[in-house]
Design brief:
The chain is mostly helical. 72% of the residues lie in helices and 0% in strands.
Length: 71
C-alpha cells in the first residue's frame, strides 16, 4: 500500500508485505524468536513516527499549503 511505504522502511522500522499469510507468519515467527530485532524495529518505528508526526511540523506544513492556495 503506497501510503505505508512513505512511513515504513521495510525491515527497518516495520514491514510492508503483500496479503499472503505465509509471508506474515514468517515475519511474526522471526520477531517472536528474536527479541533484539523486535525491540530495534519498535525503537526505529517510534523514532520515525515522532519525527514525522510532530504537531509543530504538521502545523507549519498545513499553514504553508493553505497560504499557497489562498485560504
Amino acid at each position: 500500500i503506497p501510503p505505508f511505504r512513505e512511513i515504513i522502511d521495510n525491515g527497518e522500522n516495520g514491514f510492508v508485505l503483500s496479503l499472503k499469510a505465509d509471508l506474515w507468519a514468517t515475519v511474526i515467527v522471526k520477531l517472536l524468536k528474536n527479541q533484539h530485532l523486535k525491540n530495534l524495529i519498535g525503537k526505529k518505528a517510534k523514532e520515525k513516527a515522532t519525527g514525522m508526526l510532530d504537531w509543530e511540523k504538521t502545523y507549519i506544513l498545513n499553514e504553508k499549503v493553505l497560504k499557497e492556495i489562498n485560504i
